[in-house]
UniProtKB/TrEMBL annotation, chains A, B:
It is a multi-pass membrane protein. Residues 39-68 form the 4Fe-4S ferredoxin-type domain. It is found in: Membrane. It comes from the Eukaryota. Signal peptide: none annotated. This is 4Fe-4S ferredoxin-type domain-containing protein. Residues 638-691, 833-877 are annotated as: Disordered.
Amino acid sequence: TCMYGRYTQELGVYAKEEAARLRESGQRRSVSDRSRTLDLLEYDKGRCAKCRICTVRCQKFLISRVGEDWIFLILLGLLMALVSWVVDFCIAICLQAQKWMYGGLDSNVFLQYLAWVTYPVVLITFSAGFTQILAPQAVGSGIPEMKTILRGVVLKEYLTFKTFVAKVIGLTCALGSGMPLGKEGPFVHIASLCAALLSKFMSLFGGIYENESRNIEMLAAACAVGVGCCFAAPIGGVLFSIEVTSTFFAVRNYWRGFFAATFSAFIFRVLAVWNRDEETITALFKTRFRLDFPFDLQELPAFAVIGIASGFGGALFVYLNRLIVQFIRKQKAINRFLMKKRLLYPALVTLLISTLTFPPGFGQFMAGKLTQKESLVTLLDNRTWAKQGIAEDFDYIGHSQAWKHPQLNVFVTLVLFIVMKFWMSALATTIPVPCGAFMPVFVIGAAFGRLVGESMAAWFPDGINTDGTIYPIVPGGYAVVGAAALSGAVTHTVSTAVIVFELTGQISHILPVMIAVILANAVAQSLQPSLYDSIIRIKKLPYLPELGWGHHEKYNIRVEDIMVRDVRYITLNCCYRDLHNVLLTGHLKTLALVESAESMILLGSIERAQLQSLLSQQLGRPRRLEYIRERAAAEKKHLSVVSNPGSEDGSQRASQEVRFQISTEESSFSPTRPVPQKPLKPALKRPSVVERPTEIPTGKKHTYLHKQLQTTEFPNSRLMKQSERKGIGYLIDPKGDDGDVEDDMTIREIAEWEEKQLDEQVNFNNCKIDPAPFQLVERTSLHKTHTIFSLLGLDHAYVTSIGRLIGVVSLKELRKAIEGSVTVKGVKVRPPLASFRDSGTSSSENEATELHKLWDRHKSMSLPREHTPSESDEKSQ
Amino acid sequence: TCMYGRYTQELGVYAKEEAARLRESGQRRSVSDRSRTLDLLEYDKGRCAKCRICTVRCQKFLISRVGEDWIFLILLGLLMALVSWVVDFCIAICLQAQKWMYGGLDSNVFLQYLAWVTYPVVLITFSAGFTQILAPQAVGSGIPEMKTILRGVVLKEYLTFKTFVAKVIGLTCALGSGMPLGKEGPFVHIASLCAALLSKFMSLFGGIYENESRNIEMLAAACAVGVGCCFAAPIGGVLFSIEVTSTFFAVRNYWRGFFAATFSAFIFRVLAVWNRDEETITALFKTRFRLDFPFDLQELPAFAVIGIASGFGGALFVYLNRLIVQFIRKQKAINRFLMKKRLLYPALVTLLISTLTFPPGFGQFMAGKLTQKESLVTLLDNRTWAKQGIAEDFDYIGHSQAWKHPQLNVFVTLVLFIVMKFWMSALATTIPVPCGAFMPVFVIGAAFGRLVGESMAAWFPDGINTDGTIYPIVPGGYAVVGAAALSGAVTHTVSTAVIVFELTGQISHILPVMIAVILANAVAQSLQPSLYDSIIRIKKLPYLPELGWGHHEKYNIRVEDIMVRDVRYITLNCCYRDLHNVLLTGHLKTLALVESAESMILLGSIERAQLQSLLSQQLGRPRRLEYIRERAAAEKKHLSVVSNPGSEDGSQRASQEVRFQISTEESSFSPTRPVPQKPLKPALKRPSVVERPTEIPTGKKHTYLHKQLQTTEFPNSRLMKQSERKGIGYLIDPKGDDGDVEDDMTIREIAEWEEKQLDEQVNFNNCKIDPAPFQLVERTSLHKTHTIFSLLGLDHAYVTSIGRLIGVVSLKELRKAIEGSVTVKGVKVRPPLASFRDSGTSSSENEATELHKLWDRHKSMSLPREHTPSESDEKSQ
């Protein structure tokens, strides 16, 4: 007993300590933990209590740590590094297998061709089929979707485990085929998937992972990890992900991104060292350019030319990509055929591309036998290929030999490579497999840069510098510049410059790269949207276009010029009929609630679904049965106490009481048994729910009535049809199991009853109201509106003037205004008189008059109120 | 005449074309241009019309271009590059002069010492005095101030030309003295000054430079330019400026920053090439580390140690810096003495530091003769100084010789350098001259890294790699890592890593640098605020602390837990007395306007100043004179038409009419001559304005009255005193020149009149009301509140519940809540019952009851309204 006593005492002290410590930590967690400790005290008075305490302590420690951001970020980084490395490894094996097959069959060209072509076709077809079956959301880059998700829009099924599996396997197969596809876009998506799944998994331990804004922050960090572990470029990854996915960026996220991306890149490179691929941690595509004199000042014009040309090229690439998609969509015959055989299009495209790159065939003129990685390594080589236009003295070693053709000049090979790869990449990225376009574009850019560099080297064989020392021109530097410029132009980012430095491990060309990237961006941004924005438009994702730079007319447009003045609203004292009418005509997801139609003071906004459930409750069967029951009771009462003169008043009070019950609790319709609440939600989602009762045999009479209702000429039948047409489903409880009351109402009676119900005033008590929807003032500038919309991820905002609702601006209006003012430069978006409102005095006058009205109204209203002392009496009750 | 005719015709066509073109461009500009063209048509029918047309055309083209952002950014970049280069040039000359003096006097050590010490003392004293006299705002780094300005707070005099001149000249002198000071912080400020001045200058041509949000965007770009042209580091500059100045960053600004910073860095480096300092464009502190094997994987722990140690060091630096400032402030004796002789403190500090660095003295043990730049160059050298602990085989060339001491080990020199420079830099940055702390910290970090690197090199003389090839350890790489880590720790930024790459021109150490910087940040951020935040706190600038990372309790605090429930508000039907009382008790800059005290529906917010002017109008002398005039007129009327029974009604209507006049136009008090409006503004600013009339001889009687007013026991005298105490100045027009009416009211009459005036209802018509102040809901989380406050740069926000004002949150509450939850970890900020509000149902109930009240009120209000048809009649009138 002494032992027991000691243990329990110890446990008691421990429990106290625990309780004290737990009091300090979060409450939610403490409750569960304390109960666990208490459980322990009750049951575990056995001998392994000490051991258990230890376990609990460890568990608690782990749980408390799990909640920290950095644990999450480290796990995410580790996971993504592993995924990236495994994917790279598998891709390398796939590519090696193809080469091995191709090399082994060198006796017969036809067999070689078959092997060269069949392999990618099979892989791509498998990839397309697999993603199509498992998760069609995994198709494509994923950056446009992530941009939309980070904007606050919920895209269904984009962050599930299925999508993760489909994306990883699909991507591996697609890249293993050797097509000109990239892994960087999909990796942004994969990292976000990882983060979403990881945070779901970790929310099993702690409660904080359920917070929405935290989730968005973690997704932003995940995007950085995606790029970071793909290129082993932490800084470039963070910046690229910011530029590509965000409009406004919280600097505190920046931190998270850096931490996770660095860790991820580190692990990714360490894995390569451990696998004996590398001797130490270095850049992915290490260059060995001259350090002391990287380039001459007089070479800068050439770099600028690369930048400008890349700008045009990038715009052309985006345009070509969109053109192909639109062409296939528009050509109905092709479309119909392809839709039937979903896998035919990928197979055909792959066949075409792989046929053209077949090394003994056309491929010999465009270094077709090199994989993407090999091409890039050779293009970034620091030796000059051509001197004085002749490829004679070029020391071809390793893969660089592929660029040499006995008959052709190296320039021709490069031009062919650029031209062919250009349209091939644009075509290949339209295949419905998980794939990105960054890497192919990067390689094309490098080739273009190399071409310019080789030309420069041929033009100035002894370099440009006139100071004595001969510094020959480094065409590899030009390739670096070209790669950064073209990928920057296609994605509309500047951070490709940083990615390039991290990829090559050299920053000596920083100024040429920066200049070229900025010029390329300036050209491309003025011609085309970015590739991701283009895809967003093609996919019709909900987006908000960027304010271009230099479009300063945006500062002069005001909200009042673009807002919709005809706002759908409901008043606090409206009846159900108004609700019904408003629901039929509007289209926004939420509706404004104003005090009254005269005052128009905005009180809040209500979701459409809430209003629909209000209506369905009012017109639903339970309420009708309740009515029947009440009527029967009243009749009985009337029969029994018919001589009592106070009966009318009593019944009135009773009905009021029932009314009150309804307002406080939903289940008060049938006091004996709660109304089944389950069908409410699905019923609201399904538009054709009205027809559902026909399938359920228990509600036969109901069904019959309903069918008649739908065929008769009564107004509420019209009402039902209208609702159906507009996709509004009122809940009509299909389970007619309130058997204690007989539904003996005729159709006419029901119609009359419904009409009566519609005339009642709406009771908003059970309704969830957003009490502070976002409000703008009529004189808010378009620029500020855009800022606020993209900052806060708004869908719409109400425009108020001294508390009065005067308009609404949704994403649509904003988009129109921005696009209108961007594309049609000559057309003014402002109404002719708008400039007169600019002066400060007029606005204050305007406000003053508004206020004056309000004041007048107030005065006239306050007078009668003083005459009614009943109000204060009511309140004091 | 034919000639004339032709010209005019041509001009007419031209004018038409012009008009058509102008119609398309901005209206404001077009008006001025059109008038110019018309002027041309009228006056210039002479022979040089053609020439003039050309000029006008060119001018117009230039003006239209000037409005574009990129012109502005290029000009800014160019200007800043020039400033940076000139400042660098002058600093170099100053330092050379010191060396020359010191070198020339090598015969006499005492003279040498005098020269060594006097030179910096004179320069620093001049710098301190110059900035003190011209613009005291130029003192210090400027980054804290820029952070505050970008947060939306207007700091006076911080962006003026005077400050620009003071900062540039003060900085040049301060750095020319050779003290351990940096130029990077001041350059951020200088670039912002440049941008502000440039935009002011360019607004002479176009109108768009007046937009506030655009100005903020340009300032953000300017900060990037500042860092970019200081270090020739465009990418690092952009990132550093983002991290240091912003909480939320618009990606569209990122673009601007990159563009301007790249251009600026380019010009800055090109100037060096043109000046024959450099052969071509390279990095500022170019390193020549090995490319193929930069570091071994097993060296990473050493890098991590540097990171962690730098984290502690950085926190210590910030703490030391604050300690010194606070010590000097607290020691009243010292403080009083130093305040008298403002230049003594800089002189003393300089004397101390320069004495200690005197090369033949203690300076020989700490490489005292090297300038900051020279030290950095030697520290980043790629050769090893020490092998096996002996500095024998170190090939000392150039400045590196300074590190060698015949008696001392190189390790001791390094340790002494680090320790001495550490406190010297912390001390030197407290001198009131324009100076930054980045560069000194950077150098100390490099020295620390070098120390670790040399130790490693001594420990592993043959390198760590076990694979056969000997790769000796590169201590220069450690120096790079240390520099980035320590400067990152002091400033709480990660982008120092990028700056380091751009400064050295090598990115091969990216992973060690990133790891060290992140570790240093993690340590430093958990110990101390950043140097800039520390200065913000010392200077008591209005700031909002950051949400730390990992402090996830912030997601659980709601606005209702931190808001002030006792809101000062004014109602629409309040009288002037209420206004007066509210002004006396409140402290916020704006006051909430609600519909009525019962409904509490928020209509908008009014600035304090507006209310003060309302009150002063109501109680001011013009109004009283008006009253006297009216009374006199009424008396006359009464005397003349005493028998008319309708007179009372008439006079009432008259007074109402006057009331109406007042409400529409301010000058209607004295219809013959407008009331002088000028003294209104200064009067409101000055708290003691009530006493001002005593100084003006014209208002003698008024003054007398006032003096009496202030001594008598009347309530309004008390009122005056109260106003004085609270710093509220009512305008009492000092010019008593309304001589046409005799101010014959006695004191008692005035008091009575004022009392009567105070009981009148406030007329808000002339008041500027912000109709949509920012609103939060009571359940908004602290995290979201912080986000919104920092996103939108708010000062306060009202908390509403279904349109009803229930509380207010200002920056103060938010700061308290954040700091409370950050520093006192155990204390919960939430009230005990807050967790119960977390579940969804309770909140909707809460909302429902709120709404219920509103609804009841509405019902009770709508009933009497129905009984009063007069209202609608009134409206139809």
